[in-house]
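Researcher: I'm preparing a figure for a lab meeting and need a structural model of a single chain. I don't have an experimental structure, so a prediction will have to do for now. The sequence is pasted below. Please return the structure as tokens so I can convert it later.
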Amino acid sequence: MADEQFSLFTAGSGAPGATDISAGATSPSAANFDAIPTDASIPIVPGTYDNLADLGTHCRGCVRCGLAETRTHVVVSRGSPTAPVLIIGEGPGQQEDEQGLPFVGKSGQLLEKILASVRFDTEKDVYICNIVKCRPPENRVPTTAEVTACKGYLLEQIRLVDPKIILLTGATALKALLGVKSGISKVRGQWMEWEGRLCMPIFHPAYLLRNPSRDKGSPKWLMWQDIQAVKAKVEELTSS
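Model: Understood. Here is the structure written out token by token.
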């Protein structure tokens, strides 16, 4: 059975110091609310948005950082707004920028296979988003200023979806949300707690595409262990 599930990984078919989003907060004034997409100095405080639709409207018109100048589409999210698992990537790539959806290129296809291997349905069981909503030129790592300008949107997405588990794909997502600067190879598969939520750093699917071996101890083999642990934890939390 493990071999059968693991075949789905083939690519050929590719912390401390964070804002407390659990605490209640007074929504900004109407003037400040309207200015959020145009002025990075306006904070996106917890409770700013009543729903994900309003958040999406602001995101799609956002010019809080320079990434707005080169984007084709803002990439807000896909998946279920009530999902038990929230997956955070670094930022959109070329295909994501063209389609306006996260993880739809080769990395996204592999992510779909990984989720399907433990019977996670991307329409019901996961909500997928990124640290930044616009593509950095040449797929470079987003700058600190870009992450800061966009982070409030992400924190509101987490608050509104209210997932049981957050998966952080790659070092950029790990550092941006939890403040952990360790290499992903050292901490992947470890449960971490953040704002009362369980988080797990995992390899980014793009890294798995560059390391195709499925031998024991390889990144793909380790990913298989990690996603099984995530599935088991979701079942444990939903049945309790």
